[in-house]
Design brief:
GO cellular component, one term: cytoplasm
Radius of gyration: 21 Å
Protein name: Adenylate cyclase type 10
Helix content: 55-70%
Number of strands: 4
Structural class: alpha+beta
Organism: Leptosomus discolor (Madagascar cuckoo roller)
Low-confidence stretches: 78-103
Keywords: ATP-binding, Nucleotide-binding
Shape: elongated
GO molecular function, one term: ATP binding
Order of helices and strands: HHEHHEHEHHEHHHH
Largest sheet: 4 strands, mixed
Strand content: 5-15%
Mean pLDDT: 77
Length: 179
């Protein structure tokens, strides 16, 4: 209730923050890791898993680093590139701010260790705790409906949600959606 009251106040300004663009996620990762570029697999993983949320991106990187899943290499100028080097590395110079390359990190590259399967990476505990804390702040009815919606996935129709909800909650769900 307090949040709703504060939001309705004329003294409160609400800002909707959009998600980061994929290029910004890569730029942030390069900046956080102190490198000039990251592998395409790492970029794809961060873009998909963070959904543009900078906090999620940072926590995912922290998890990968903390579990020793990343390799840091130095690319020497003038060296012959391996056949697949160009397909492996996403150049941050195309995506990052000019300040990144001025810091002298443009020769450092971050890749995923060859023995790491990104498909098996679980959501870091810190992100789980954040999601659960937000869920716990909801009213019991909202929590129940959110749990059913989570089973369906990130995109669904209200008809599908109504179909799987227990009969006792169907009328109450309409009230929740009207808010």
């Amino acid at each position: 209730k307090t949040t709703a009251d504060n939001t309705a106040s004329q003294k409160t300004t609400c800002l909707h923050l959009d998600e980061l663009k994929p290029s910004d996620v890569v730029q942030k990762a390069c900046q956080d890791l102190g490198v000039g570029s990251i592998s395409r697999d790492l970029a794809r993983f961060l873009i998909q898993r963070s959904s543009g949320n900078p906090c999620y991106c940072k926590e995912l990187l922290r998890c990968l680093c903390g579990n020793d899943m990343l390799l840091f290499c130095t690319r020497r100028q003038g060296d012959e590139a391996e056949e697949n080097w160009e397909s492996l590395v996403m150049e941050a110079s195309l995506l990052a701010a000019p300040s990144t390359s001025r810091m002298g990190n443009d020769g450092r590259v971050c890749i995923i260790r060859p023995d790491v399967n990104l498909e098996n990476i679980m959501l870091p505990a810190t992100l789980k705790e954040t999601a659960l804390a937000q869920l716990d702040q909801r009213e019991p009815l909202e929590r129940t409906v959110l749990k059913f919606a989570a089973v369906i996935g990130p995109v669904f129709t209200t008809q599908l949600l109504l179909h799987i909800l227990p009969t006792s909650l169907k009328n109450e769900m309409n009230c929740l959606l009207d808010l």
